[in-house]
Design brief:
With 184 residues, the chain is mainly alpha-helical. 44% of the residues lie in helices and 9% in strands. The protein has 4 helices and 3 strands. Strand 2, helix 2 and strand 3 form a beta-alpha-beta unit. Helix 1 (16-26) crosses helix 4. It starts with a strand and ends with a helix.
Length: 184
């Protein structure tokens, strides 16, 4: 059974969770794993020289637990749906993983507001550091324009996912037909 995994990343409070949940509502057989669910307890989070808790670093996360959760999802997806020659794009299990350390600068009004200097002094520099690490990896990454509306971003990502799922289905059909021809 094929699975389809999507990563959504960006700056803290940039709309990743909102986009992921909106996609989940519209895509069949779709699950979401949020990196925010894997923060270590506050007592284990380092503090920087300005007294800010260092949430925007990998060390603040229990990545082993997150990776284990992803692995469990993948195993479950393989067992839950029996593959057939006529497998449709709707049957392909989709996993959306969203988090600030997966791949956009966006100003937001926070309630309650951040301490003065926190975003510019910590959040944004850490985002740039991690984004550079992602740019050095050769995966196919689509960057979104954070100045667009939530609806425009949703439609862009949704349409891209539907196209990719259709390509997967088409690819599977071609492989199946080639296999059948070879066996004749």
């Amino acid at each position: 059974m094929k699975t389809f995994i999507v990563g959504i990343s960006g700056v803290t409070n940039g709309g990743k969770t909102t986009l992921a949940k909106n996609l989940q509502k519209h895509l069949p057989n779709c699950s979401v794993i949020s990196q925010d669910d894997f923060f270590k307890p506050e007592s284990e989070i380092e503090t920087d020289k300005n007294g800010f808790l260092q949430y925007d670093v990998l060390e603040a996360l229990n990545m082993e637990k997150m990776m284990s959760t992803i692995s469990c999802w993948m195993e479950s997806a393989r067992r839950s749906v029996v593959s057939t020659d006529r497998e449709s794009a709707e049957e392909i299990p989709i996993l959306i993983i969203e988090g600030f350390l997966l791949f956009n600068y966006n100003t937001r009004v926070y309630e309650p507001p951040d301490s003065p200097g926190y975003f510019d002094g910590h959040v944004w520099p850490m985002y740039l550091k991690h984004r550079q690490e992602m740019q050095d990896i050769t995966w196919e990454v689509v960057y979104l324009d954070g100045t667009k509306s939530e609806e425009d971003l949703f439609l862009q990502v949704y349409e891209d996912l539907i196209q990719e799922l259709a390509k997967q289905k088409s690819s599977d059909s071609i492989k199946t037909e080639c296999s059948k021809s070879f066996l004749k």
